[in-house]
Design a protein that fits this description.
The complex is a heterodimer of chains A (about 140) and B (about 400). Chain A is built from 1 helix and 8 strands. Chain A is mostly beta strands and about 140 residues long. The radius of gyration of chain A is 15 Å and the shape is globular. Chain B is an alpha/beta fold and about 400 residues long. The chains are: A mainly beta (about 140), B alpha/beta (about 400). Strand 4 of chain A pairs antiparallel with strand 5 of chain B.
């Protein structure tokens, strides 16, 4: 997957991006209701508790849905199709991401396939992306 | 407020659309700026109502700020709504205007839309792409920027969960194109087959081909909303269309965090509220407009609104039920997929519903007494539902 826009972290999201640069996937877990959630917030969206902690998670999940975008916009390479996907983490939350390491072809991208997180340099940061379990 | 039927509704009074019009031109209009499109549509709608700018005390719009439009038209409003939730904003404006009119906070409200979506003349940059927002940090870096690479992402899951396929997306395109054949202002007017939609139309974002994505156009539309009582005294009273029920809902600002991937809670709750406030059921609806930025959206809506059961939307469209002569005529202007789509389509869905109820549509369906209009804001972020009727409730 060729580049794309770089994220600009904000105070509420910075721990996510600081973990990613060390190739760790970290999301927040509510200490009151125990649920994991994403995107980063300083309180739990399920029970409104402010007692939340950052946790490194497995980076394992499954491929929920995707498109193969044949018309990427700069700064991504307009000639290289992007797999823009929804991944459901084993811990529960869902993330938008890219699938890398597999051909951008529906036959290579079965829904519900297990996926694992990997990290791709992007500007000053690293972006969590996913590959199919077993893909190199 | 309580209506005669004893049903609580937000607008709580009898409210009419007394003026409705689109821009004089539609499609490719590089000679007009965004605000010109608003003004052209507004002046056409006022003429349709037999009113002038001096009769307007309320203004509602999304895209530009309301005063960019009101000042351009020489209107000094005492009621303003700039609600912006994406493409269905104008439907929320109608619902809010109805409540304001029923409460006595405004008498005659002008709702305008204009967008130079294709030519990009005079467009503002309020919505410029940020890399700092939730979307900017967690979606944009993955290429989820344009609607065709974002709004479309949940579709494969929807199809997979129901044992449906890309052919079901193509059937939506074919059914709606049939309506557009009779519509001289439609942008795409060539008949198509499912095979052509699947195999000849260029791929944009698998599973979507270009024909499964809306057109990109310049244009606009406007509505004049007032009380049914005042409408009765106006020259255009015989063409008044009434708001029977309405609902609105909002969920996540980013597609990836919608509560469920293959069904949208916003569609379910706002449509239920529209039916409840109108005191009507699905069997009372003669005509349906479903905001179709992409071919999967009407399939979600048919199921989430309850016009068909879960998993039945594809077969329903393929059966011809939504085509000319079918039991539930849907997107009878050709929809965003064939008629027009400036970027915020809901204004055009309402215009077609009103034309059908007035008996003035290009592809007129006989004996239409009620029309249900279902809108979507952003990418499954917001929902609006309106039920219009030919007769006052």
């Amino acid at each position: 997957m060729a580049g794309g826009a770089s994220p600009t972290p904000t105070p509420d999201t910075r721990p996510f991006w600081e973990a990613a640069i060390q190739e760790r996937l970290a999301i927040q877990q509510c200490q009151s209701c125990s649920r994991y959630y994403f995107y980063p917030r300083d309180h739990c969206p399920y029970c409104s508790s402010g007692d939340v902690e950052w946790r490194d998670v497995s980076g394992s999940g499954r491929l929920l849905s995707y498109v193969i975008n044949y018309r990427p916009l700069p700064p991504a390479d307009p000639k290289e199709p992007q797999v823009i996907a929804l991944v459901q983490l084993d811990e529960g939350p869902r993330m938008l991401t890219n699938i890398v390491g597999s051909p951008a072809d529906p036959d290579s991208l079965p829904l519900d396939a297990p996926v694992t997180a990997c990290f791709e340099p992007r500007g000053d940061w690293k972006l969590p992306v996913f590959r199919l379990a077993g893909a190199r | 407020m309580t209506t005669a039927s004893g049903v609580r509704s937000m607008h709580g009074g009898n409210v009419a659309i007394i003026g409705a019009a689109e821009t004089t031109g539609l499609g490719v209009l590089p000679e007009m700026s965004m605000v010109q499109l608003h003004a052209d549509a507004a002046r056409n709608a006022l003429a349709d109502a037999g009113l002038t700018a001096a009769d307007i005390d309320g203004i509602a719009t999304a895209g530009p700020l309301p005063m960019e439009v009101s000042h351009y038209l020489g209107i000094t409003p005492t009621w303003v709504d700039g609600t912006m939730v994406g493409g269905c904003s104008f439907m929320l404006h109608v619902r809010h205007a109805a409540a304001a009119i029923a409460a006595g906070a405004a008498t005659t409200v002008l709702v305008t839309h204009g967008e130079s979506g294709r030519s990009r003349v005079g467009m503002n940059r309020y919505g410029a792409m940020s890399t700092e927002t939730v979307s900017g940090q967690f979606e944009v870096p993955y290429g989820a920027m344009m609607p065709y690479a974002t709004f479309t992402v949940p579709a494969l899951r929807f199809l997979h969960e129901r044992g449906m396929s890309r052919t079901d997306l193509a059937e939506v395109v074919v059914a709606q194109r049939e309506w557009a054949l009779d519509s001289p202002r439609a942008f795409r007017r060539k008949p198509v087959t499912t095979d052509e939609v699947l195999n000849d139309s260029p791929p944009v974002a698998y599973p979507f081909t270009r024909d499964m994505c809306c057109v990109v156009t310049d244009g606009g539309g406007a509505l004049v909303v007032t009380s049914a009582e005042r409408a009765a005294d106006l020259p255009a009273s015989g063409r008044a269309v009434y708001l029977l029920g309405s609902g609105e809902a909002a969920e996540s600002p980013v597609m990836s965090q919608m509560t469920d991937v293959d069904t949208f809670g916003g569609f379910r709750s706002s449509s239920a509220e529209a039916f409840r406030s109108a005191g009507l059921t699905h069997r009372d609806i003669d005509h349906l407009m479903c905001y179709d930025a992409f071919a999967h959206v009407p399939l979600y809506m048919l199921e989430d609104l309850g016009f068909v059961g879960r998993g039945e939307s594809g077969a329903f469209v393929a059966s011809g039920a939504t085509r000319p002569g079918g039991s539930l005529p849907m997107n009878t202007n050709g929809g965003g997929l064939s008629y027009t789509h400036t970027g915020m389509y809901s204004m055009f869905a309402m215009q077609e519903a009103i034309r059908q109820l007035r008996g003035e549509a290009a592809a007129q369906v006989p004996d239409i007494r009620t029309s249900f209009v279902q809108g979507v804001g952003m990418y499954f972020a917001a929902s609006a539902s309106l039920i219009f009727g030919k007769e006052a409730p």
